[in-house]
Amino acid sequence: MYQVGSNTTKYAVSKSGMETAYGTFTNTITDPYGYDKYTKLEDGLWLGVKSTAETATKDDYSYSETDGLTIKSDKEMILFGTKSGKIMKGQIKAAGDIDVNLAIRSLTIKRNTQGAAITVNPAEGKTVTITAYGTNNLTSSGAYAAIQKNGSGKLVLTSTTKGTINATAGNNATYGAAGIGSQYNMPVDGIRISENADVTAIGANGAAGIGSGANADAANIEIAGGIVNATAGSGTIGSKNIGGAGIGSGATDTVSEATNINISNTGFISIRARGNGAGIGAGLNSETSDINITGEVGETKGKLIVIAANGPAIGAYAGDVKNVNVLTDATVNLSAVNGIAVGALNGSSASDITIIGDNICGEKAEDVPVLGTVSNSVLFVGKTYEVYGTATIRKSTHIKAGTTLELSSSSKLIIPKGVELVVDPQHDDVLPGALVWAADSDAQLIINGTLTVKGTMAMDSAYGIIVLNGSLNLEENANIYGKFFMNGKYTGNGVITKGKNQTPEEGEIAVYLDLDIDDGVTYNAKGNLAENQLIIDESSLEDTTTGTYAINNIVAHDGFQITDILLDGKSIINNSSYVTKNQETGEYNVVLSVSEYRGETIKFAVKAKSTVESISIERFPNKTAFAKGAEFDLNGLKVVKTYKNKKTAPVDIDKELKVTGYDMNSVSAQTVTLQYIADDRYSDDITASYEITVFDFAGLNKGKTTLTAGGESFVATDVDNEEHVVKFALGKNVGDISALKDKIRLQVQGFTNSVGQIDFVSSEVVGQNAVEATYVADIYVDKAKTVVIQYTIVITQPTLYYDLAEAAVAVNGEYTYDGTQQTPDKENIEVTIDGAVVPDDQYTVEYGENVNAGTGRLTIKGDGIHTTNSKEETFTIAKAKLKNIDALVRSNEFTVQNDVKHELQIEFGQIEGLAADEYTVSYKKISDQSNIVANVSNGVITTAYDTSYSKAGTAEIAVNVTIKDSAVNYYADSELSHSINVTLTKYVKGTSITITSDSDDFAWDASAGEYKVTLYKGEKIWIDAKLNDGSTDVIDYKVAEGGEEIAACDGITISALGKGSTIITASTGKGATTKRIAVTVLPTTRLELTGTETYEKVFGDSAFTLDVALKDTALESKLSALRYVSADPEVAAVDETGKVTITGCGETTITVTSYTEERAYTSDEYVVIIKVKAPHTQHIKDNGTRVEPTCEKNGSITYRCTECNEIVDTEELKATGHRWDEGQVTTQPTTKTEGVKTYTCSVCKKTKTESIAKLEEPAPANPTPVTPTTPEKPTVKPIKKGDVVSDDSKAAKVQVISTSKKTVAYKAPVNKKAKTVSIPATVKIRGKKYKVTQIAEGAFKNNKKVTKVTIGSNVSKISKNAFSGAVKLKTVTMGQNVTEVGAYAFKGCKVLTGITLPAKTTKIGDQAFSGCKKLKTITIKASKITSKKLSKNAFKGITKVTTIKVPKKKVSSYQKLFKSKGLSSKVKVTK
Predict the structure, then answer these.
(1) 1428 in helix, strand or coil?
(2) Residue 84 reports pLDDT greater than 80
(3) CA 354, 359, 365, 371: dihedral to nearest 10 degrees?
(4) DSSP letter, residue 207
């Protein structure tokens, strides 16, 4: 049975009955089959229950047209729209500790009020499953997701064959919500899109498509396949782009996370990010981890399309990225318009990224995704296989022919157990197969699983290492190059070949062959160490006639020699029991006893190395000139040996060279010969040589080595001509001894004018009473002034010494009690000894309590070096004068009754330092403001009233305070008085309130015991309330808490402010009687107008009708009339129909009002602007709009009429043409190729090039032997500005700043692995001294080795990014002349603990110390830092663990200045 009734009645019918009532369900989706009983919710909306004879009951659900549907049961239900385009007004809610199964079909939910279309709140361990039949369109409003997932359980979305879900978050909030997931500021966890789902999700402003809203975490999101389209929401707040991820988290103000995102790529999945959000992963400022994309190609190939704007396709824009795995053979298209495909942007880190698949980034192999800066990651896709850091292959894969696997700097690739890496064979004549390329010395390939080599693998580096712990399969003709440690199983018969660029000493090959020794087994030793190294012939392993095993005829190729033979890791090459050598052929034979090794497994190895062909000098020694009798010195010498295979390696000077040719007693030019002696077979004639000079130097003349200082001349106290040290010990203090370089006179015995430049090095306090300065002087030791010796000059003098116990201390200034410690600073303290002032940097000041008035104390203490002992002094702290005192009455409202006494309770404003027994209080009445009498005595007020009980008012009372002479910290010239008012309320006799109103809706509800009234928003009614004694002025009105935005009452009217209900209470305020008014406010609909805003007319134009009408035409029946009013009828007049007549020139407005007489609707005003111009007879030309010409394009000036804006004239501006500079040679010509000279335009920076002719071939060398001569010095190009060169000591790379001023910038240490670096004050380049005045931009950027840096005294500028990313830098000693610290100079120095900026440092760039997580102190000595010298964000990014110490006088001003430059309020600024 079934019934069909009115729309307001609910009915239960069967499926067949429902079809009879509404027609057969003519839809290709075969639902609602299986749903036996239906409950009608409203017209066109039914709820069905599956597989049960019962209909849904109130225990299963609740429903209202306004609030929507709430599922309460775990029965499987379907919500069914039987009318096309059926729109629900409310939302669907599924909540509680139950598993909910809900199907939806043909639903449209579009929220007009704040809220989600569907809200689920599954408890822990519970699941809400929503299945789509037909098309379902779900739209939320405000900061709510379309499908909002709360709770800790799981949400599952699925579809039938043609079922779809379209979820769109409302975009009407500053920070939006996800399409499917959570709202703003709410995390989401546990969403699954099943493999047969068809889902489209669109996020709102800054939120994810699927995941979290803005400012929230997202976790455990699974896309199992199906058809999924996820689009993030974008937007800006100010200039800030707040895009969210397609799948993952929304944008955030702080830091949020997107974790555990799993996509099984078997369906069609399209993901689009917005703004700075990632396609998959994190929105702006969020971090992401554990992203997994898996799936294989089946009968239907899956496809994943990810499109990002400014962020990465997978990863994060401004947050760390970790553990991303793309392991799939399905098609994956990753697109990032302005970002990268995978990784992190904006300075964040990315690690543990694995990408393996044949169809990633489309079907073209060259479409390889671009990774950002990552670590511990691997990319196996297209033609580029790369490894970053330590990475593990997560999936078996091929390195195909034509593909390169690159192991980058310091990288390590691990093949785990159960995974196979296959290297394909060669495919053409160019590339012999796939390569394993070691781009740095410590790159490694670690095989714990299986490596199958079909072609060639190469570790092309001195230290490239393959470590085998698993299985290695070398197929026929396979090759491996590189250093090889095999600790696992070796199979196959391929060839193992040493790398072409590998030096034997640094990377010898050791191939360990596992030999299973057993009876009747032979070993075919065809597996060779071949080509350039070693041959093992095909001898049988067992010789049954002698009872031995044998490996015979082991020989090295020409140019190589065998260095060792190993048995089970021990050398046996010199053990005749095992090894014999044929001296004629050089072959080795190895014999092993059968009885000793039968049944054993042994490891046998042979090592060989190439022999040396020649040596050459790469760097000459530091000393090529020696004093007669001096020891020979090879320090700084670097010699390189070249092998027969053309490889090179450094020579060990001490072990591999014999040095001859030096005679210490012969004053002359000499030739030093270096002979290579390490190779006993090939080194007899391998030599190199260079020239030296021996000179006769008698040293300095002590008697004529002098110093002038302090008006006196001092003779050197010691001259050591062996150690080259001069000492001056001054017996008195002569002042600053660091500025005496022009006052030092040195004389070389036997020469004149032989002293070169003298430079100051340092000064320091030594011992308890001395200061020492050190200088360096250049001494010419030959008359030609070509040979220089450096002397160290040490000057010592006593320091000034003060005994403070004998000092006189004067404390100046006035000090008055203010509740804080009084601390006179050094500017107000004078310390003298015998009339001489002691400098304030020679002592410290300690203070006593010094808070209360009276006597203050301070102590002057010596610093222990220049001063000693201490002296105490006192000073006066005066009492503070009190001018007034505050008094507050705790209870100042009293009911007037005859002779009733009320105690006044007075509370004084707190005065720190004034005790209760230090003042007295008295009271006095000043006046009464009524005829009611109020008397006061000793703080008690007595009231009386007249019989009419109708009078009330206030009494004014004086509170007088007298400060006692015994008060410690305060005094007052006279008695302090403060007046207070006491409110006197009349005694009310009335016992009930009656309220009347002019509104017909206002009435008394006896059953509820209250008045009730219903109003529309904006309405106002009059009320009149009286007590039964006739009085009205004692009745108070109060709106219930929370109702202030709904209604207001002023005692005369009630005003309707906003939708809702509230209570207004009328009472006497004394509890005598109370009445309640229940107010309900209904919303109104505004009759909103729209139309043309502005009309521009010319005087004389015809009349016209305004284009203004209701925005919603459906409301026309509610409109009473449109009314029109012109602000200036003399410009434009308007009649009651909206017809406008032009009456004059000028500008006016016409206001259109939508008038209505219905209470539920409100009027709207629409203002139309009318502009009327006078007609003009000719054009008036304006000043023109100018488009500037460029080097190549013409410009123009366009002129318009000032009256009608028409273009009346144009003027062409010719292109200016390029201004080329003199050009720079960018490619040097050779005898085989032309060079290139490049010119740059000084205006637009465009470049052009021209060819430089090839160099002529040099004339053939004369084959006739000639007498050896001293080799000519090679032609050296002059040094010019911008050149990057190494200094003469080969310790540093520097860039020339100025050749005239001889200044350079420190570029980098030559030793890239140096942990401690000293940046010198000066360097020598080609014998000339240059000052190091800067540290170049990026000098130590991302340096992973350096831990300590000392900066020289001449350095004035630390450039941009100088130490950025130096993650192990812990200590920096700053030079005293540093004036500027560039932007990001120390950004990301994670272990830097402290830094001191000298007094000259006044300029600091953006984020100079950002991200220094362990930086405890920044000490700033400068006292003249100004806002102009600090960049806008100079102190941005400094963490709260840091304290900034500044000069005491600058604490307050610097604190404000630094905060204006980005300093967090959590960072302390102290003295």
Answers:
(1) helix
(2) no
(3) -30
(4) -
* Burial (Cβ within 10 Å: 0-12, 13-18, ≥19) of residue 638: middle
Q: Decide if 1413 contacts 1439 (C-beta within 8 A).
A: yes
For the whole prediction, is pTM greater than 0.70? no
Evaluate if residue 843 carries a pLDDT over 90.
Answer: no
CA atoms of 526 and 553, how far apart (whole Å): 12
Please tell me which of 496-510, 560-574, 1104-1118, 1254-1268 the model is most confident about, judged by mean pLDDT: 1104-1118
Asked if residues 1195 and 1213 have their Cβ atoms less than 8 Å apart, the reply is yes
In the chain, the percentage of residues whose pLDDT exceeds 70 is: 78
Tokens representing 999 are: 């509104």
Q: Which residues pair with 713 in a beta bridge?
A: 708
Tokens encoding 34: 């299986």
Q: Is beta strand 210-211 parallel, antiparallel or unpaired with respect to 870-878?
A: unpaired
**Would you say 667 and 628 are in contact if contact means Cβ atoms under 8 Å apart?**
yes
| Residues paired with residue 803 on neighbouring β-strands, in sequence order | 868
CA distances to 33, 270, 688 from 719, in Å? 112, 84, 39
**Of the candidates 1139, 1129, 1150, the residue with the CA atom closest to the CA atom of residue 1102:** 1139
Q: Which tokens go with 1168? A: 């139309």
DSSP 8-state symbol, 863: -
- The token pair at 481 is 């190059």
Q: In Å, how far are 32, 562, 572, 672 from 566, measured between CA atoms?
A: 81, 11, 6, 40
Answer yes or no: are the C-beta atoms of 90 and 141 closer than 8 Å. no
Buried b (16+ CB within 10 A) or exposed e, 962-971: ebeeebebbe
What backbone phi and psi angles, to 5 degrees, belong to 1115? -95, 10
> For the chain, what is the radius of gyration of the CA atoms?
47
Tokens of 1020: 């106002």
| 8 Å CB contact between 1201 and 1209 | no
Element containing residue 377 per DSSP (H, E): strand 377-381
pLDDT attached to residue 1123: 94
Q: What is the pLDDT of residues 710-733, one digit of tens each?
A: 778 899 999 998 788 999 998 777
* DSSP three-state, residue 1322: strand
Query: For residue 1465, what are the CA distances in angstroms to 252, 286, 1375, 1459?
Result: 21, 23, 30, 7
**How far apart, in whole angstroms, are the C-alpha atoms of residue 86 and residue 74?**
26
Residue type, 299: E
- pLDDT at position 17, please? 40
Q: Report yes or no: 392 and 380 within 8 Å, Cβ to Cβ.
A: no
Amino acid at 123: A
Residues in the chain: 1471
66 has pLDDT over 80: no
Give yes or no for residue 480 having a pLDDT over 60: no
**Secondary structure element (H or E) that encloses residue 983, with its range:** strand 976-985
**Phi, psi angle pair for 1449, to nearest 5°:** -70, -10
Each residue's pLDDT tens digit, 1415-1426 = 989 999 988 888
For residue 464, pLDDT beyond 60 = no
Closest by alpha carbon to 87, among 113, 115, 109, 68? 109
Q: How far apart are CA 280 and CA 889, in angstroms?
A: 65
* pLDDT recorded at residue 1349: 92
Q: Chain-wide mean pLDDT for the chain?
A: 78
Q: CA 244 to CA 161: how far, in whole Å?
A: 31
The conformation of residue 1209, written as its DSSP 8-state character, comes to E
- Between 125-129, 335-339, 369-373, the lowest mean confidence (pLDDT) is in 369-373
Q: CA-to-CA distance for 785 and 142, rounded, in angstroms?
A: 86
Cα dihedral angle (1385, 1391, 1392, 1393), rounded to 10 degrees? 150
**Alpha-carbon span 360 to 306, nearest angstrom:** 11
Distance CA 69, CA 47 (A): 10
Determine how many CB atoms are found less than 10 A away from the CB of residue 37. Answer: 19
